[in-house]
């Protein structure tokens, strides 16, 4: 792989990571707070605020396209067209023939988002500055053609997500301790890939597998613990704060460049997952994909177990962050598989 190709793919990863974080964070951080405040006073005000934060998630495909365009130094029109192209081909908007209406889901399929962003960016680079005065006419048309291609590939990209869900679903049929460990490890890895852990949680845990959903939540916590500690060591304090608040996908490019980081993440997840079983950490399909974002995971487990504050603190904070600290020192300082700079994000 040439340096230009690596740089281009790195731009796609960084653009996707920033777009996802920018779109998801407002709702992730504030939804629980607004829900609680709405029970105390001004319920209609906080309902409106919650809706606004939720709706921001629908902008993720546009954000990804625009940010990728900015990284590639596109002109405003070119970046805007790429953003619109990614939105149209993302799967975020679909036509419901039965209701004869368009319906939307946040983000769409992130695999397809990245594919459309790659093709759209390459085509814009190819025709850049070639249309002269009629660029405003022909460039959006090219974007529409790329979006149409994205709609063709969408079912196949969704199939990839379903395949991963099928593999992880097999873990739920195993002995409970092994199940918790493997689900925690799987979700710890998925959160630093284009897979939506929120969607995966909904797919996998619509039944009453509360233990499995709790393990999934701890997987996200494990990844957050490793990456927060790592970025703190790399003097990227802004990234540390962002990760704690839920911006774990910010580190997708780092994990792609340094897959050795997965050893630290998997080790932390395995131990955290086992401890979660013994501490009776549970969840639902709604909390499985969030981790400690907005304290959704801890609060849901606390609510479902009717107490057990010590267990919650141990499982969500003490154990994952303690194990992450030791695992990072072991793989980084003892085995020297990577350096602290591996955690330094390029997109902040």
From TrEMBL:
Source taxon at top rank: Bacteria
Organism: Gemella morbillorum
Primary site of residence: membrane
Keyword terms, alphabetized: Cell membrane, Membrane, Sugar transport, Transmembrane, Transmembrane helix, Transport
InterPro entries recorded: PTS_EIIC (IPR003352)
Record's subcellular location: Cell membrane
UniProt-listed Pfam families: PTS_EIIC_2
GO molecular function: protein-N(PI)-phosphohistidine-sugar phosphotransferase activity
Protein name: PTS transporter subunit IIC
Membrane topology, from the record: Multi-pass membrane protein
A GO BP entry: phosphoenolpyruvate-dependent sugar phosphotransferase system
GO CC terms: plasma membrane
């Amino acid at each position: 792989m040439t340096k230009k190709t690596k740089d281009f793919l790195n731009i796609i990863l960084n653009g996707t990571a920033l777009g996802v974080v920018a779109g998801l964070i407002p709702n992730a951080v504030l939804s629980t707070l607004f829900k609680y405040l709405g029970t105390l006073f001004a319920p209609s005000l906080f309902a409106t605020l919650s809706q606004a934060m939720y709706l921001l998630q629908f902008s993720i495909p546009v954000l990804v396209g625009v940010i990728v365009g900015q990284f590639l130094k596109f002109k405003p029109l070119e970046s805007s067209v790429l953003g619109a192209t990614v939105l149209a081909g993302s799967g975020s908007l679909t036509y419901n023939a039965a209701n004869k209406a368009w319906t939307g889901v946040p983000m769409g399929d992130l695999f397809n988002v990245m594919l459309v962003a790659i093709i759209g960016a390459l085509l814009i680079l190819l025709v850049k500055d070639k249309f002269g005065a009629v660029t405003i006419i022909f460039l959006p048309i090219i974007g529409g053609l790329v979006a149409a291609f994205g709609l063709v590939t969408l079912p196949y990209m969704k199939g990839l997500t379903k395949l991963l869900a099928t593999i992880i679903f097999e873990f739920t049929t195993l002995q409970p301790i092994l199940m918790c460990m493997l689900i925690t490890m799987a979700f710890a890895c998925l959160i630093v890939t284009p897979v939506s852990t929120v969607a995966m949680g909904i797919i996998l845990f619509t039944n009453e597998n509360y233990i499995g959903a709790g393990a999934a939540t701890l997987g996200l916590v494990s990844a957050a613990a490793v990456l927060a500690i790592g970025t703190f060591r790399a003097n990227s304090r802004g990234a540390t704060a962002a990760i704690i608040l839920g911006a774990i996908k910010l580190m997708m490019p780092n994990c792609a460049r340094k897959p050795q980081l997965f050893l630290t993440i998997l080790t932390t997840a395995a131990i955290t997952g086992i401890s979660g079983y013994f501490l009776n950490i549970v969840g639902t399909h709604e909390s499985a994909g969030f981790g400690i974002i907005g304290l959704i995971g801890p609060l849901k487990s606390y609510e479902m177990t009717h107490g057990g504050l010590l267990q919650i603190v141990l499982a969500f904070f003490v154990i994952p962050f303690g194990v992450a600290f030791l695992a990072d020192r072991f793989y980084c300082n003892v085995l020297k598989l990577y350096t602290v700079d591996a955690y330094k994000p390029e997109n902040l």
